Amino acid sequence: MRSSLFLGAAIAALAQLAHTRPVAQPTVEVSLVKRISGLFDKRSESGPKIGGANFPDPSIIGYNNGWYAFATRTRGTNVHIQVAYSSDFSNWSIVKNSDGSQKDALPNLPSWVVPGAGSNTWAPDVSRLDDGTFVMYYSASTTSDTTKHCVGAAKATQITGPYTPVSSQPLVCELSVGGAIDASGFNDNGKRYLLWKVDGNSIGHGGACGNTVAPIVPTPIKVQALANDGITLQGSATTILDNLGASEEGIIEAPSLTHVNGIWILYFSGNCFTGSNYNVNYATSSSITGPYTRAARPLFKSGDIGLSGPGGADIDRYGVNMLFHANYGSGRALYQAQVSVNGKVVTA
Length: 348
What we know:
It is a single chain. The protein has one domain: Tachylectin-2, Chain A. By secondary structure, the chain is mainly beta. Helices cover about 5% and strands about 40% of the residues. The longest helix is centred in the N-terminal third of the chain and has 19 residues, at about 1-20. Strands 13, 14, 15, 16 and 17 form a 5-stranded antiparallel β-sheet that branches. Strands 1-2-3-4 form a 4-stranded antiparallel β-sheet, with no helix packed on it.
């Protein structure tokens, strides 16, 4: 009886709060209603981090009792790949060199990449290999066709780099269908995989992000097995998801995979990143190669807790800690969340 009275009072208080508390904006840390007797969920999203600095396409890796995040090149500088660090998965800071300058995790580019500012180094992802070294996958503009990107690989003995390209040739390219971007590695108990997006909208017929004018071009997400060295592709690639056409503005991208309780969960973004429909979505399957079933609702979309155009999510190896970006000021700021999985439903 006493617990029922307490729950009633709590619900009344929360109802009053709902009428008086302003909607949370992306300039503040966000923490919504705490679970009370199983009726309410706590939302774990928070941000922007690093003071709202531009930190697009973040990836996450836990290492040595801390967390590292890697991001797309810094606009207006010579830094190709950014690095940030957190000891508590809450407070993040840019990793710097001993002289105080911002560290570049990929200072030297291979010969297949367009040099200088035209390199457009995007969407890095870092995995630790069995021998204790690290591999980074990244996208960059290619000299073979400067309008398109390919996926490259680089290795390092230290997690923050410097990473050294492993070849004078890209790892995945597929120029005839638009190129390749947004590579992501995944280690499933010793079985390694690489995912990427075929960048079909780069050869689209116009509109938002180049692909809302019919006929809409495929932008499939593919997966392929990797050898333990993290750079040798094995077997053939399998398409596991594609865009839904005009209803998704002809785009899906930014794949990140996890395997929780026998369910494969593919996180991805849909729609054009420059518009308000960009989101963090997910699909589930009982097999890594699909078929994948989309969730009934995106995990994050514009308007959720004040977010604007959230996307580009990456999940840690264990399927719990997530980083993503969203519009903030004139750039894309870093946000974070912790997710939970119940069957095939993901909540944050």
